[in-house]
Specification:
The structure holds two protein chains of two kinds. Helix content of chain A is 36%, strand content 20%. In chain A, α1 packs parallel to α2. The longest helix of chain A has 14 residues. By secondary structure, chain B is of the alpha/beta class. In chain B, β2, α2 and β3 form a beta-alpha-beta unit. Classes of the chains: A alpha/beta, B alpha/beta. At the A-B interface, α5 of A face α1 and β5 of B.
Chain lengths: 130, 121
Amino acid sequence: MRFALLVHGAPASHAASRTALRFARAALAGGHEIVRVFFHADGVLNGASHAVYPQDEDDPGGAWAALGREHGLDLVVCVASALRRGILDAGEAERYERGGATLRPEFTISGLGQLVDAALGADRLVTFGA
Amino acid sequence: MTPPPRLLFLARRPPYGTGLAREALDAVLAASAFELPVTVIFDGDGVWQLVRDQDPTGIEEKCHGAQLEALPLFDVEDLRVHAPSLAARGLTAADLLLDATPIDDAGLREAIAQADRILSF
């Protein structure tokens, strides 16, 4: 089956990110396809490159990045949600004259059209955090 | 040609206090730009989004209700409201700023069953 995931929750304050991670790992292990993970609202904070976690805690954003590298996942943060939360790629940082990129390189910034496109391209869209 | 998938948006959060109501509205408008059949159901605390005469100037927020009123202009016209959620909050159809079709539990189940994709906010 082809899944698209929608993640609304911030990694440090909401279980949604970790739940979605476990779902993604289980789906991939079961031979299913993840066509896109769309991070929306506070979920965009999963892409924050400057997040630092204590050594004895899991870092969900880092885990998404690792899973993305391993499986070539399309990890997309919503541009409107991201800009409000200080999550910028190099292009947005230059456009808005901010100090530098704050988005992990495994993620891309795009619009809500990518959420609709993912919903249409998948057999199931599963929402985490709402 | 296969018919386009029917998208169902579940608006379950209050209009203020968290940003999800606003971000849901952004997603609804994005879907309408794809010219897909879109249904929005206001459920649970989401029914507060529909209350008329919202004035959030005191909390320095944009008026969510005013933005909802623009939905029909974007051809998002299938708006429904879960009537038991209204009743549980002491609200009636007369309190609402939009003409949303009241549905009961069975109507909610039916809408969820008929949708091809569900986006919950």
